[in-house]
UniProtKB/TrEMBL annotation:
Residues 1-15 have a biased composition (Polar residues). This is BTB domain-containing protein. It comes from Oidiodendron maius (strain Zn). Transmembrane segments: none annotated. Residues 34-105 form the BTB domain.
Length: 236
């Protein structure tokens, strides 16, 4: 669980460190004519996104391995995201090119950001995961943001590894804004693993609640992008 940090101290230091690890390595745009395709959805009615291979491979080691390997993705320069949604992949491509996340403040967009975090985890893109957390953290006091997080708990706990940063963030948001009666009256909506994490969150005899927490408390490491929490869950 996140440790108490000063609003002016550790958070900025962590964020600067994460930025350096990505900003110092600019896209090596040496093959501007090389393009790859992301195929989203089922084979019956797919949506295709075409983007520069250099950009895709720079930000995702999964894409890099796929498009430069000897398997079907490398031969066809096509990567299938069958379980993804086109709106979510639009945000993915948008971030790859601009390093920005542009959404409105409504329930659906917040829900899409949570789904994008999970997709970014599968694609080993920690910088994008952290950008999503920063966006959600700033807007967490808004009712639509909080409700999207609560409404996505089952997805979060089913599709990520136990103890991942997104789970920690969701638990802390719920612990901050939900009243005990809110959980008691809708108990069936909360995954069992979440309830355990929620209870554990309050067992901190050495810290008084409420305590301060910062977006950087829920960042994932950008040093090793070869393993995702979802991949670990699959292996386990």
């Amino acid at each position: 669980m996140p440790q108490k940090v000063s609003k002016s101290g550790g958070a900025n230091k962590s964020r600067t460190s994460a930025e350096k690890s990505t900003e110092m390595r600019r896209v090596n745009f040496t093959t501007p004519t090389a393009m790859v395709t992301l195929v989203v959805g089922s084979s019956d009615n797919p949506v295709k996104f075409t983007l520069h291979k250099d950009f895709a491979c720079h930000y995702s080691p999964v894409f890099h391995a796929a498009f430069n390997g000897n398997f079907i993705e490398g031969q066809t320069q096509t990567y299938h995201l069958e379980d993804a949604q086109d709106k979510v992949v639009t945000l993915l491509v948008q971030w790859i090119y601009t390093r920005r996340i542009v959404t409105t403040d409504n329930y659906t967009d917040y829900e899409n950001l949570i789904t994008l975090w999970i997709l970014a985890d599968k694609l080993c893109m920690p910088a994008l995961q952290n950008a999503i957390i920063d966006r959600l953290f700033k807007t967490k006091p808004k009712p639509d943001c909080r409700m999207a997080i609560i409404g996505s708990l089952e997805k979060i706990y089913n599709e990520t590894a136990g103890g991942c940063q997104l789970q920690k963030f969701a638990v802390d948001v719920c612990a901050t804004y939900l009243k005990p009666d809110d959980i008691r009256e809708t108990l069936q909506l909360f995954p069992a693993e979440f309830l355990i994490d929620y209870a554990s969150r309050f067992y901190r005899p050495h810290i008084l609640v409420p305590w301060e927490f910062d977006a950087s408390d829920y960042h994932v490491s950008t040093e090793d992008k070869s393993k995702s929490s979802s991949a670990k869950r699959t292996v386990e």
